[in-house]
Amino acid sequence: MARLPMCMIVDDPAPIINPLYYFRLQVTKMAEPKQQSGEPMPPKIPLELIERFAEATAKFGVKGKFSILAYPAGLGSILDGWEGADRKEMAAWLRIAREKVAPLFDITPEIHTHTLALDLDTKKLLPISEHDWSQQQNEETLTRYIAAALDILRRAGFDATGVTSPCDFGKKVEDAYARAVLNAERKVYGRALTWYFLHTDTDPKGKASHVFVRDCTGGAVVSVVSKCGDFPWQTMESRETSDEYVRSTADKYVTEDGSGGHLAALLNAGAPIVFHTHWQSLYSNGRFTGIRAAEVMFERVAKLWGDKVDWMKCSAFAERMMRNA
Predict the structure, then answer these.
(1) Are the beta carbons of 271 and 22 closer than 8 angstroms?
(2) Per-residue b/e over 114-138, b at no fewer than 16 CB within 10 Å?
(3) Which of 5, 28, 138, 301 is 20 to 30 Å from the Cα of 74, by its Cα?
């Protein structure tokens, strides 16, 4: 029996900053970003998280997608940095992403800022979120916006094979958005097969990843759908750090004996195991309980399903979707 594809999607990574802090600051207009619990939210995520993530994923052969914000929160591009940024720390973060993360994970822009839309000519933030701005755009304007983000990643040394949607970017104009992704990939990388992540459907029998666009020149775009919610998100709101709490979070993915958890339900349904989390979920407001839970889950998958699943990058999954379409 063929092994099921398995992909881990990691949203929101950016050098140095905590993307959720800036989203709350710029988009939801929270003067002092806090968790729902009232706990202050740190504006930075230290280098330790990407070091630990790279080590754990390499140990267990985990693959999938890893975003890198091209122009985080409008502060500046990852090529040039920004005022107050530790340039050595940023360079180290990007080096780890290139050398240790990219061999296992597709790199994508999560467009530019993941906060407010960026004026590409002035490099100033517009008074509208990226995801709301996108719903008012057409194929031409979306192509320009996406291509600019891809080009930043290319110049930073990354082969960005697809695009990640911040929030519901492009959802109301999805046909134009998908075609713009293909246009931009062709322009920047000369790529004819690409993919994007926009949708989540946790029903094992619900909406699945599929080929969304085929054009007359042989180009194609695959919509990669996450089939599992972000369980470590809750760790940002809890000060609990015990091993029992970490295991209980991992249980939501797959229990120690493999009999329960949402990933087990996908496996039993014969569905590709595509799931997502967020960079800030793994950081857990400075407690690292999310990454600890992920490490437990990785180990369980290796022990229980080593001969049943095939970890792969989202680009490889998209290629499989094309072959089977």
Answers:
(1) no
(2) bbbbbeeeeeebeeebbbbbbeebe
(3) 138
| Assigned CATH for 4-324 | 3.20.20.370
φ and ψ of 113, to 5 deg: -105, -30
- The fraction of the chain above a pLDDT of 70, given in percent, is 99
Contact criterion met (CB below 8 Å) for 291 and 52: yes
Per-residue pLDDT averaged across 133-139, rounded? 98
- Is residue 15 within 8 A of residue 93, CB to CB? The reply is yes
Torsion of CA 52, 100, 295, 20, to 10 degrees: 60
Angle at 13 between CA 9 and CA 19, to 5 degrees: 120
Which position has the higher pLDDT, 207 or 1? 207
Whether the per-residue pLDDT at 103 is higher than 70: the answer is yes
DSSP E strand boundaries for 93-137: 105-108, 116-118, 125-129
- 143, 126 contact by CB (below 8 A): no
**The CA-based dihedral angle spanning residues 311, 316, 322, 325, taken in that order and rounded to the nearest 10 degrees:** 0
Residues contacting residue 6 through CB under 8 Å, at least 6 positions apart: 63, 272, 273, 274, 301, 309, 310, 311, 312
Q: Could you tell me whether strands 193-200 and 116-118 are parallel, antiparallel, or unpaired per DSSP bridges? A: unpaired
Taking CA atoms, 242 is separated from 42, 283, 288, in Å, by: 22, 15, 11
Count of alpha carbons within 13 angstroms of residue 143, beta-carbon side: 14
Rounded to two decimals, the pTM is 0.97
SS3 (DSSP) at 7: strand
CA 16 to chain centre: 16
Question: Do residues 68 and 153 touch, judged by C-beta distance below 8 A?
Answer: yes
Nearest CA-CA partner of 220 in 324, 112, 133: 324
